[in-house]
Amino acid sequence: MQLPKYKKKKRIKLKICQEPGCGREFWGHPIAKYCELHRDIKQRAKHKKEFESVDVKNMVFKHNYTEVLDLEFCCCLDGCENRYIVKVFPKQFVYPRYCLEHRNDFRRANFIRMQKRKTRAMATAH
Ligand SMILES: [Zn+2]
Ligand SMILES: [Zn+2]
Residues 23-52: what's their mean pLDDT? Predict the structure, then answer.
């Protein structure tokens, strides 16, 4: 059997880095997304954490505890009454905002969709 021969064409384009706040122009393949610096995954991961900051999945919980505690929180998703235990650490104020189930983006979106359907059904019930 013979392996197919691919012609290696270099299709290099001038691209703009997709990393938020970078926007640097660079020459790369049409599918390339990041400049030389941000092609290094470590450079991006750092950013991503900041980017996914407080509002989306986390909340700020201000406290004065000086030792590690297990606290019970109620899921912040409208209509969800699940509770979840969070380990609260001294001087750490950012904690997950949703129950274990709804930390998953897909499930959360699904739940919101179901809730909307429910409220619509209630509105038309009269
Ligand atoms: Zn970049
Ligand atoms: Zn929930």
Answer: 79
Which residues have their alpha-adjacent CB atom under 5 A from ion ligand 2?
A: 75, 77, 80, 82, 99, 102
Distance in Å, CA 109 to ligand 2 centroid: 11
42 or 69, which is more confident: 69
Helix (H), strand (E) counts: the chain: 2, 6
* Contact call for residues 96 and 58 (beta carbons, < 8 A): yes
Instruction: Write down the residue that tokens 């406290």 correspond to.
Output: 63
Is the pLDDT score of 32 beyond 70? Answer: yes
Residue 114 has pLDDT above 60, yes or no: yes
Which ligand sits closest to the CA of 21?
1
The dihedral region occupied by 81, where left means phi > 0, alpha psi between -120 and 50, and beta the remainder, is: alpha
